[in-house]
Amino acid sequence: MNDEGHISLPALQSDLSQQPQVQIHGGRSAARRAMAAGREGLNIVNRYRILIVDDDAMAREILKRILEHAGYEVMTAGSGPEALRKLHEGIPHLVVVDLMMPEMDGFELCRRIKSHLDVPIVILSAVAAIESKVEGLQMYAEDYIVKPFEKEELVARVQRVLRRYGESAGVEQPEVVIDQDLQINFVQHWARVKGQQVTLTPTESKLLFLLVRNAGRVVTNETLLAKAWAGDEEAYEEGLRVHISRLRSKIEANPSKPVYIQTKRGVGYRFSAKVNYPAGQEPMALAG
Questions:
Q1: 241 vs 21, 45, 142, 202, CA distance in Å?
Q2: Residue 166 · residue 192 · CB < 8 Å
Q3: Predicted pLDDT at 233
Q4: Backbone φ, ψ for residue 93 (5° rounding)
Q5: Which of 22-31, 236-245, 254-263 has the lowest mean pLDDT?
Q6: What is the C-alpha separation between 126 and 19, in angstroms, rounded?
């Protein structure tokens, strides 16, 4: 512990001769409270799942305890490839990503996640350069937090992002059963239609993810265009209509009379079927 009462954690870098400190503010008592949170059995009802990706094991553990203390279910990964494998086990409602990681840096991980799924990302990094912040916020992330940070700040920013996503935050299972005729795997990009598996393109999978996640509500054309296309691609309503048409041809029994994806003319599209989530894993709004 340093003179200011902060707990310092050495952050692993590719250059081991330079080890900048990642500081969790609040001193030993705050660290003890965070580390003990999982053992206290806190009675907080909150089913949001968060994935933390950081190559520093101690930082991962402290972040995990802080967020568990706030009532979240937390998964962790020590690298980009491990994080991508975790997505096959379950899609989190939010991902916290460190930038400076070996094998695959944080920006590349964010790019791969966003190319397939509309999952909110918070970047947490010791990199304070304005260029990194601008790139992160413009291309990938809903927020960018510079280390060192206050634990209350982290929790508040995570809550703010999840509130912004609201009830539509996350479809936790990578494979979702719509009904006996339609099952969808958002990570592996396929749909099973009346027992026959059809391949979805990344854009089709992302559009379907957005619609299913908001089942019963109209998702506007503007929202679909903003979220389903990568930041460096041009997106137009005509292109959206083409992709929706192709998607219908793959999952609808009669694409000219769609049952699943319905058009709200001049506004957007609605996924009309009820989504059958596993017990206890329905999307829910953040309490409070």
A1: 50, 40, 27, 16
A2: no
A3: 59
A4: -80, -20
A5: 22-31
A6: 11
Q: What is the pLDDT of residues 41-67, one digit of tens each?
A: 333 335 688 999 999 999 999 999 999
Separation of alpha carbons 200 and 197, rounded Å: 10
What does the radius of gyration of the chain's CA atoms come to, in whole angstroms?
A: 20
What are 138-176's pLDDT values in tens digits?
A: 888 999 999 888 999 999 999 998 887 754 455 556 678
Looking up tokens 């010791």 gives 126
What pLDDT does 114 receive?
Answer: 84
Higher pLDDT, 189 or 30: 189
Domain ranges for the chain: 7-168, 175-271
Give the Cα separation of 212 and 197 in Å (integer).
Answer: 18
Backbone φ and ψ for 42, nearest 5 degrees, come out as -60, 135
Task: Supply 181's token pair.
Answer: 């005729």
Rounded to 5°, angle at Cα 240 from 229 and 253 = 120
User: Domain 175-271 adopts which CATH fold?
Assistant: Arc Repressor Mutant, subunit A (1.10.10)
DSSP assignment of 160-191 equals: HHHHHHGGGS----SEEEEETTEEEETTTTEE
CB 42 within 8 A of CB 19: no
Residue 243 to residue 166: CA distance in whole angstroms: 26
* Global confidence as pTM: 0.60
Q: Regarding beta strands 49-53 and 94-97, do their DSSP bridges make them parallel or antiparallel, or are they unpaired?
A: parallel
> Domain 7-168 belongs to what topology?
Rossmann fold (3.40.50)
Q: Are 167 and 219 in contact (CB under 8 A)?
A: no
**Beta partners for residue 190, in sequence order:** 185, 199
Contact 94, 122 (CB under 8 A): yes
| Sheet of strand 196-199, all strands in order from the earlier edge strand to the far edge | 175-179, 182-185, 190-193, 196-199
Between CA 252 and CA 182 the distance in angstroms is 9
